[in-house]
Write a structure and sequence with these properties.
Blueprint: H1 6-20, H2 25-36, H3 39-62, H4 66-79, H5 84-95, H6 98-119, H7 124-145
Helix pairs in contact: 1-6, 2-3, 3-4, 5-6
Length: 146
């Protein structure tokens, strides 16, 4: 019998948080829906471009253009609404407000990322402290030069 431990739960929370994270995608879907006047037409456009860019990525990798292939794959994966479209549509059917739906998804993303840090015992202040200090020092030095 396999027991689910805290690391496995943390990984599941990270995957869920990453999947429902609408950063950037929410505005793209909103603007495309305004343009197409239909949610599912927007999704078909996104699926088309995701498939097209993934195909170009495959061709780029075959031609040993790895940097281009990686960029095309990254953009194609960003545009791929697989599963996310049904989730947003379902929640939007309940709330009847697109931005309320996005707020709910942002809230769930924060909860899942928080649970991930809890299960992996990551202290975000301690983990990001060196980067924050480094950025502060760089900004301070640039301001001195001005």
């Amino acid at each position: 019998m396999r027991i689910i431990n805290r690391k496995m739960m943390g990984t599941i929370c990270l995957a869920l948080g990453t999947f429902i994270n609408p950063i950037g995608f929410d505005i793209l879907v909103y603007k495309l829906t305004e343009l197409t006047k239909n949610y599912w037409s927007t999704m078909y456009v996104l699926y088309f471009f995701a498939l097209l860019l993934s195909g170009f990525s495959y061709i780029s990798f075959k031609l040993n253009k790895r940097v281009l292939g990686n960029w095309l794959l990254m953009i194609g994966l960003f545009l791929n609404p697989f599963g996310y479209d049904v989730l947003v549509y379902s929640i939007n059917s309940i709330t009847n407000d697109y931005w309320m739906t996005m707020s709910f998804l942002y809230m769930m993303t924060i909860i899942f990322f928080g649970l991930f840090m809890l299960f992996y015992q990551i202290n975000p202040l301690k983990s990001f402290s060196p980067q924050i200090k480094n950025a502060h020092t760089k900004v301070k030095n640039k301001l001195r030069k001005i």
